């Protein structure tokens, strides 16, 4: 085989360089102009069947239709949501890995000394999704019937009462901390990888109570599978009109709602973020999503909150607020 002359060699090198550039772009999927060209993984940092998973699957369908590719839910649970968030933080910043997370994004820095990511520096917010009320619910075998009876029973039997939550920094854990602080007692906490599995054991009577989002409790309450004691919002909610607020039950300090947002790794191109934010806005305006959320006690955020700017502002504020609350609680 005769060696190619100088002109032919240069042509070969040029062609190989061009091929290299194309392969590099394809491998990193980093061509924002053509985004999206492939399915998108959306990481849910809690178990399947729980409230975070439920909200994610509600918006994944209309977002997939808008983007023209599938949003594939990946449940990566553990450690109050920090395992899944950590995996998202180090994903390729090409728009093909998105994270759905909630208030736990803002509490983790104050709770985990060895947190593998910085919720603000390592991510770009895409937009807020919904803010979900919480309910205090008990197993059908649990003795108390009203919220007042629940308060007295827990205070008088703290050494034998068990409370489920989804790991340190999860919404159910935070609500539980507020509850214990207000009642002035410590009960036995039983951690799960999500309140999906926790609910199964609550219904089965293996654990006494938990504080969980209406997106996971409304159906069980309506079906009579669990006892409902109170909702953690200032006013009663339309989906559960007979459920009193914690304030009506004499505990105004137990007030918490779980805000949710979408994130991508920090280096993801802005054009990609815009595509995702636009698709999120379409999903939140979708009547099916509005109705599904209403049935489960919540609602999409307003359009001006489903933006990177509004999301970044809330995340900053909440990280500072929970840092102060948790720091004070730990004598910090
Ligand atoms: C879940 O999706 O399992 C919940 O969000 C867990 C929690 O934060 O309580």
UniProtKB/TrEMBL annotation:
InterPro entries xrefs: BUG, Bug_dom1
Pfam families listed in its UniProt record: TctC
Keywords: Receptor, Signal
Signal peptide: 1-30
Cited PANTHER family: BLR1237 PROTEIN, TRICARBOXYLATE-BINDING PROTEIN
Family the UniProt entry places it in: Belongs to the UPF0065 (bug) family.
Protein name (database record): Tripartite-type tricarboxylate transporter receptor subunit TctC
Organism of derivation: Promicromonospora iranensis
């Amino acid at each position: 085989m005769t060696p190619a002359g100088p002109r032919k060699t240069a042509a070969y090198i040029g062609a190989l360089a061009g091929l290299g550039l194309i392969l590099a772009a394809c491998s990193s999927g980093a061509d924002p102009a053509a985004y999206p060209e492939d399915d998108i993984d959306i990481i849910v940092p809690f178990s399947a069947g729980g409230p975070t998973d439920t909200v994610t699957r509600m918006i994944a369908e209309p977002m997939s239709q808008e983007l023209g590719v599938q949003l594939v839910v990946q449940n990566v649970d553990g450690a109050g949501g920090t395992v899944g968030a950590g995996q998202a933080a180090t994903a390729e910043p090409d728009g093909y890995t998105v994270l759905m997370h909630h208030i736990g994004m803002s509490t983790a820095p104050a709770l985990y000394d060895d947190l593998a990511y910085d919720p603000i520096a390592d991510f770009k917010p895409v937009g807020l999704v919904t803010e979900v009320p919480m309910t205090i619910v008990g197993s059908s075998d649990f003795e108390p019937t009203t919220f007042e009876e629940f308060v007295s029973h827990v205070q008088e039997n703290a050494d034998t009462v068990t409370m489920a939550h989804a790991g340190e920094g999860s919404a159910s854990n935070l609500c539980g901390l507020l509850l214990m602080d207000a009642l002035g007692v410590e009960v036995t906490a039983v951690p799960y990888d999500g309140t999906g599995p926790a609910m199964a054991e609550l219904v089965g009577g293996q654990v006494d109570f938990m504080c969980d989002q209406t997106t996971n409790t409304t159906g069980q309450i309506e079906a009579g599978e669990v006892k409902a004691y109170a909702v953690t919002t200032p006013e009663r909610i339309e989906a559960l009109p007979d459920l009193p607020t914690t304030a009506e039950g004499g505990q105004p300090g137990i007030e918490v709602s779980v805000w949710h947002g979408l994130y991508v790794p920090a280096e993801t191109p802005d054009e990609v973020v815009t595509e995702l934010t636009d698709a999120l806005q379409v999903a939140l305006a979708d009547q099916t999503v509005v109705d599904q959320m209403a049935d489960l006690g919540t609602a999409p955020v307003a359009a001006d909150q489903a933006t990177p700017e509004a999301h970044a502002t809330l995340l900053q504020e909440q990280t500072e607020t929970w840092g102060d609350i948790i720091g004070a609680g730990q004598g910090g």
